[in-house]
Design brief:
Elements lengths: L23 E3 L5 E3 L2 H13 L4 E7 L3 H16 L3 E7 L6 E5 L6 H13 L4 E5 L8 E5 L9
Parallel strand pairs: 3-4, 3-7, 5-6
Antiparallel strand pairs: 1-2, 5-7
């Protein structure tokens, strides 16, 4: 790789060289993980290289950490010129779940998103639902117990 080449999302290293994207841990009454700094910029850059896809981004309504992380993801994707809607959801889940209608629909984009979040230590799953009525990527952000070390 030459100096001018851009590394893929999966190669972002934390300051401790753990091969994980850097997520900032904010100590507060409730713990939050933030997509900020270098990881955010790398995520934005890599999302810009892909086709902009419509994304419906949902977060578990009763978890402030899931809500904040979903807002960070929405902000970064929007800055990457993706069309992203953000909505609360009543379904409780752990980690990140991506739902699509077909394995061929937005395959490269979904693969890069999954690679990024798995490299950060987030449990990330993909489900195929042929009965899904939209071609938009459905992304759900749930609780994140004990993941993503900065």
């Amino acid at each position: 790789m030459t100096y001018n080449e851009t590394p893929p999302i999966s190669s972002i290293l934390s300051p401790t060289e753990t091969n994980r994207p850097v997520f900032h841990h904010v100590n507060s009454a409730s713990e939050h993980w933030r997509l900020v700094g270098r990881a955010r910029q790398e995520f934005i850059r890599d999302m810009r290289r892909l086709s902009d896809c419509p994304v419906n981004l949902f977060y578990w309504d009763y978890d402030p950490m899931a809500q904040q992380l979903a807002r960070d993801i929405q902000s970064a994707m929007t800055e990457s010129d993706w069309n992203v809607s953000l909505r609360p959801d009543a379904k409780k889940l752990v980690g990140i779940k991506i739902v699509t209608r077909s394995p061929q629909l937005h395959a490269e984009e979904i693969a890069d998103i999954v690679t990024f979040f798995r490299a950060a230590g987030f449990e990330t799953k993909v489900r195929i639902r042929p009965d899904l009525e939209t071609e938009s990527i459905q992304m759900f952000v749930g609780s994140m117990p004990g993941v993503a070390h900065a």
